[in-house]
Specification:
With about 600 residues, the chain is of the alpha+beta class. It has a 15-stranded antiparallel sheet that branches. A three-stranded antiparallel sheet has the order 26-27-28. Strands 16-17 form a two-stranded antiparallel sheet. This is Glucoamylase.
Length: about 600
């Protein structure tokens, strides 16, 4: 059975990533890129679906682990009766091919070790043909090929490759797994020690661009490393998480594939990166967006593949039992075909932010924005699926309308402040019309709160973003009333749900419930700070930091009853929430608190 979600650490090479458990087992790895089929999928089934363990022969969870400095070089250590041992894991920056490097280092005594490798391509479905060629293992099946290099003798048993060896203090034993398409020639083997050094140097050098002076610097640095690790280097696209189908409710069907680029998540990530000095990543994101969104603005999707692919058909992988029995396991995401109005506003806001940051404007970028605005003008009053991607009826979600307002607002500012061309009077009129409608139909004066959708009884954590979007200032009584109502009605042990799944007759059209949503709780900390309840904001932020695992990683959700992480991991949305809230609570982002306007 897979470990708890918080028991997994992340290593990655900016094209894909692996999850390494506290038991030394790599239980998730998609090759050659984030959205490719997994060759280790034990995470979503059991060991039959593929894994790679390097650990003391006696097994068991490690005693401690950490990343080396600011890098994604993971060190996992066990204290055993025979001595202590460390396994160092990394995926070096991609050269000719993808490599996973694992070095066993004896720390004291003599520790008996065991390596077990079970490659199963296509999400555990395909057993490769494995041969031992002069001590090097070669595994081939269809389009996939992998090589394992190590000085330790290997043996095969039960369709699995094993190595039993003992490591003495000061001794280092390398294992390098290399992947390439089977029709390509065998890549040059990397030197394990050199690869570890290169990986560490890469991350250390990347963080030299980091700009943030505030409390919680270590947490912010680690979250930025995670966001960078979720970025697909060849295109600049940012995946929402490295996994599919880690459940939002244990045992339930709310299991989704997050290995794609959501415009919403990427825009929030852009805010976090720009606000901490990473301008090159922001530029790469903008270029990715211009390519992905090119074409008819009516065809803008809410998400794309990492290279801008549009069709992301959703299907279930029925041979996998799912994480702790949470079925189905889904590949692809049907939300890609939804209409989520907020995305237009988020993209326009993101591009406005790049202008404010002085990233030079391209005509192409403004042409795209003009096209998006044309669409928005014609569709802002249509019902939509909302940012939570409900699979029930489309509604007039208040957050969606607020973001439509934000899109028009950024257009007006582009003309007023940056002298760009456009029908500013018309845009101003549409902006004001949306504002008036939301305040009229989306606000419940009896309860002094905005509501989830026009006329709904339910609330929505996304309403906390109203002042952040600049729609109303923090000191507006309707904002304060909404923050208080959301906190009162959506908290579970102090952590925030996105919405009550049972409200208004089941708004999302799905069975079951879910955990508290991590990024929404960061929004609550931010909102409490914004309305002047600063002590509470700090306390909540500190509680949220406690939800991170020992390596500083956050998944999408948290179960306040079982006290464990839920949902896909590590999730960009959650880490972005951390970075942006830290910036606001440290007072390092004054624009955000000047009434939300930019
Ligand atoms: O829970 C229902 C929905 O969950 C996923 O969407 C969520 O994750 C997205 C990526 O982080 C985020 O942009 C969105 O706001 C979240 O609701 C899933 O992708 C959807 O298919 C699913 O309906």
């Amino acid at each position: 059975m897979a470990l708890r979600i918080e028991d997994y650490g992340l290593i990655g090479d900016l094209q894909t990533a692996a999850l390494v458990g506290r038991d030394g087992s790599v239980d998730w790895l998609c090759l050659p890129r984030f959205d490719a089929p997994a060759c280790f999928a034990a995470l979503l089934g059991d060991e039959r679906a593929g894994f790679w363990r390097v650990a003391p022969a006696a097994g068991g969870l490690c005693t401690r682990r950490r990343y080396r400095g600011d890098s994604l070089v993971l060190e996992t250590e066990w204290d055993t009766p025979e001595g202590s041992v460390r396994v160092i894991d990394a995926m070096p920056p991609r050269g000719e091919a993808a490599d996973v490097v694992r070095v066993v280092e004896g720390l004291s005594g003599r520790v008996p070790m065991r390596m077990a490798l079970r490659l199963r391509f296509d999400y555990g479905h395909v057993v490769p043909w494995v041969r031992n060629r002069d001590g090097e293992l070669v595994a081939v099946a269809g389009p996939d090929a992998a090589w394992l290099n190590t000085p330790v003798p290997l043996r095969g048993e039960d369709m699995t490759t094993y190595a039993d060896f003992t490591v003495a203090a000061g001794q280092r034993v390398p294992f390098v797994l290399t992947y390439r398409r089977s029709h390509e020639r065998k890549p040059k083997a990397v030197d394990a020690e050199r690869a570890l050094a290169d990986t560490e140097a890469f991350w250390t050098s990347w963080l030299r661009g980091f700009r943030y002076e505030g409390r919680w610097e270590d947490a912010v640095r680690r979250s930025l490393v995670v966001l960078k690790a979720l970025t697909y280097k060849p295109t600049g696209g940012i995946v929402a998480a490295v996994t599919t189908s880690l459940p939002e409710q244990l045992g339930g069907p709310r299991n989704w594939d997050y290995r794609f680029c959501w415009l919403r998540d990427a825009t929030f990530t852009l805010q976090a990166l720009l606000g901490t000095g990473f301008v090159a990543e922001a530029k790469a994101w903008r270029e990715w967006l211009l390519r992905a969104a090119a074409g008819d603005p009516a065809d803008l999707q809410i998400m794309y593949g990492i290279d801008g692919t549009r069709r992301l058909p959703e299907y279930t992988v029925d041979w996998l039992a799912g994480y702790e029995g949470s079925a189905p396991v889904r590949v692809g995401n049907a939300a890609s075909g939804q209409f989520q109005l907020d995305v237009w506003g988020e993209v326009l806001d993101g591009l406005h932010l790049t202008r404010l940051a002085g990233i030079e404007s391209e005509d192409e970028a403004w042409d795209l924005q003009r096209a998006l605005l044309d669409f928005l003008e014609g569709h802002w009053d249509d019902p939509d699926n909302g940012l939570w991607e409900v699979r029930g009826d489309r509604r007039h979600f208040v957050h969606s309308k607020v973001m439509a307002w934000a899109g028009m607002d950024r257009a007006v500012r582009a003309v007023e402040r940056f002298g760009l061309e456009g029908p500013v009077d018309r845009w101003r009129a549409t902006r004001d019309k949306i504002h008036a409608e939301v305040c009229d139909r989306g606000y419940d004066s009896g309860r002094n709160t905005f509501t989830q959708f026009y006329g709904s009884k339910g609330l929505d954590a996304a309403l906390l973003l109203i002042p952040r979007a600049g729609f109303l200032p923090w000191d507006d009584p309707r904002v304060r009333g909404t923050v208080e109502a959301v906190q009162r009605e959506l908290c579970s042990d102090g952590f925030l749900l996105r919405y009550r799944t049972g409200a208004d007759g089941g708004v999302d059209g799905l069975p079951g419930a879910e955990g508290a949503f991590v990024t929404c709780t960061f929004w609550l900390a931010d909102a409490l700070y914004g309305i002047g309840r600063r002590r509470e904001a700090y306390e909540l932020f500190e509680r949220l930091l406690e939800l991170r695992n020992d390596l500083g990683l956050l998944s999408e959700e948290y179960d306040p009853v079982a006290r464990r992480q839920l949902g896909n991991t590590p999730q960009a949305f959650s880490h972005v929430g951390l970075v942006n809230a830290a910036r606001h609570l440290s007072g390092t982002d004054p624009a955000e608190h000047a009434g939300g306007g930019r």
